[in-house]
């Protein structure tokens, strides 16, 4: 059964105390990938954009990708996949811990186009770690904020509801891991499954 979250309306990230907090704590493939770092997301929206803040605490941090739309999922990475219920497409916004981003419009894992330069430039990202390669051995907390305009999401106006999921991964970290907000029922790791998206109800 899909999870649901109410997304409060705010003016900006300055009202972080009003954001709704969720735990990204589902480990869908525990036998292969049991690692479970502490990960949460805070979610809100304005009339024009979605606001997300990820907070992560883990044992060791790795990030080597500094090129936009590169393999950020191989690093310590947080992700937001989202779609308008009326659209066949979904969007994936993936960001490693140093703020390098990937953004694409998709029909599936293999059928996609990266956002054009103008659209991508409208996405705001702020990472707590410096934007340079990092390899930390030991406990490390980090956070990332991302602001995504509704216009990028096939929404001509602010929607009443979005479908989506939140993820944490690190394919080539010291211990690969895959976490999500809404459970995914597949045999192998696969985040590109809109049928397992949860519901996000936007307050007006």
Q: Can you tell me about this structure?
A:
- This protein has 204 residues and is an all-beta fold.
- The protein has one domain (4-202): Immunoglobulin-like.
- Helix content is 2%, strand content 45%.
- It has one helix at 117-121, and strands at residues 4-7, 20-23, 38-45, 49-63, 77-83, 90-96, 101-106, 112-114, 124-127, 134-149, 161-169, 178-180, 198-202.
- Strand 9 (124-127) and strand 10 form a beta hairpin.
- The mean pLDDT is 96.
CATH topology: Immunoglobulin-like
Q: Please estimate the helix content.
A: under 10%
Total of helices: 1
Rg from alpha-carbon coordinates? 16 Å
Biggest sheet details: 8 strands, mixed
Tell me what portion of residues adopts beta-strand conformation. 35-45%
**Contiguous uncertain segments of 5+ residues:** none
Calculate the terminal CA-CA distance, rounded to whole Å. Answer: 25 Å
Q: According to CATH, what is the class?
A: Mainly Beta
Q: Find the count of extended strands (DSSP E, 2+ residues).
A: 13
Count of structural domains: 1
Structural class category = mainly beta
Query: Averaging pLDDT over every residue, what do you get?
Result: 96
Shape: globular
CATH architecture label: Sandwich
| SSE order | EEEEEEEEHEEEEE
């Amino acid at each position: 059964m899909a999870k649901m979250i109410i997304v409060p309306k705010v003016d900006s990230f300055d009202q972080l105390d009003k954001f709704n907090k969720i735990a990204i704590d589902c480990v869908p493939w525990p036998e292969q990938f049991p690692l479970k770092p502490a990960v949460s997301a805070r979610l809100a929206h304005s009339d024009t954009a979605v606001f997300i803040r990820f907070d992560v605490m883990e044992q060791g941090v790795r990030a080597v990708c500094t090129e936009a739309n590169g393999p950020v999922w191989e690093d310590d990475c947080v992700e937001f996949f989202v779609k308008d219920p009326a659209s066949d497409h979904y969007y994936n916004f993936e960001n490693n811990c140093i703020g390098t981003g990937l953004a694409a419009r998709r029909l599936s894992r293999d059928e996609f186009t990266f956002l054009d330069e103008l659209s991508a430039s409208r996405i705001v990202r702020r990472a707590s770690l410096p934007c340079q390669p990092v390899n930390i051995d030991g406990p490390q907390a980090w956070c990332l904020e991302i602001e995504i305009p509704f216009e990028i999401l096939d929404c001509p106006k602010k929607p009443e509801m979005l479908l989506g999921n939140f993820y944490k991964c690190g394919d080539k970290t010291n211990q690969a891991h895959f976490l999500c907000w809404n459970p995914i029922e597949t045999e192998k790791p696969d985040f590109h499954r809109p049928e397992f998206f949860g519901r996000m109800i936007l307050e007006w």
